[in-house]
Design goal:
heterodimer; A: about 110 residues; mainly beta; 11 strands; B: about 110 residues; 4-stranded antiparallel beta sheet
Chain lengths: ~110, ~110
């Protein structure tokens, strides 16, 4: 039973446009959410996170929104760049820290120029 | 500051053998978590160690085990290897004791079981 779901396996966006990656979770005990970017044969790289006490967190081109009532979060990338092309993972934790993370299966983002 | 270091990077083993993977966390990080990445299942949590004690465990068989040393370095062991154990094994370290801190991942060990 998947506790963290990324229902879109892939997303294609043009350079300069907004990329929106979505993530749903089922466990209401999750209190900390993170987004990671991953290239093949490398470890995931941290992008941005959000605590369950917030509904929005921004860092440069990246913004994460959390809707606790819907158990849904999304990552917005504006503007999208070709270098953003990678697999994006949503992860959740139930201990307010980046440990014992439960990951979604990832969304492959392709940004074309 | 050095990142998370995993050794070896690549490994080929035969079914039935056992394997030990090593992870050195970022200096000062005392929590180490292990994950398995496969094409079908994605990234799955194996276990987490802090202060030489296993704090959390994922849903994996007992063939998968780990340990942590007093210097926070960690090892994971897989015994009686099966073909399905072929995967990228990732280690992540976290600054334990602080909330809302991210995990930093190593580059992983690619294990192939033949």
């Amino acid at each position: 039973d998947q506790q963290v779901k990324q229902n879109s396996p892939s997303l294609s966006v043009q350079e300069g446009r907004i990329s929106i990656l979505n993530c749903d979770y089922t466990n209401s005990m999750f209190d900390y959410f993170l987004w990671y970017k991953k290239y093949p044969a490398e470890g995931p790289t941290f992008l941005i996170s959000i605590s369950s006490i917030k509904d929005k967190n921004e860092d440069g081109r990246f913004t994460v929104f959390l809707n606790k009532s819907a158990k849904h979060l999304s990552l917005h990338i504006v503007p999208s760049q070709p270098g953003d092309s990678a697999v994006y993972f949503c992860a959740a934790s139930g201990n307010q820290a980046g440990t014992a993370l439960i990951f979604g299966k990832g969304t492959t983002l392709s940004v074309s120029s | 500051k050095a990142g998370v270091t995993q050794t070896p990077r690549y490994l080929i083993k035969t079914r039935g053998q056992q394997v030990t993977l090593s992870c050195s966390p970022i200096s000062g990080h005392r929590s180490v978590s292990w994950y398995q990445q496969t094409p079908g299942q994605g990234l799955q949590f194996l276990f987490e160690y802090f202060s030489e004690t296993q704090r959390n465990k994922g849903n994996f068989p007992g063939r998968f085990s780990g340990r942590q040393f007093s210097n926070s370095r960690s090892e994971m062991n897989v015994s009686t290897l099966e073909l399905g154990d072929s995967a990228l094994y990732l280690c992540a370290s976290t600054l334990f004791g602080q909330t809302n801190t991210e995990a930093f991942f190593g580059q992983g060990t690619r294990l192939t079981v033949v």
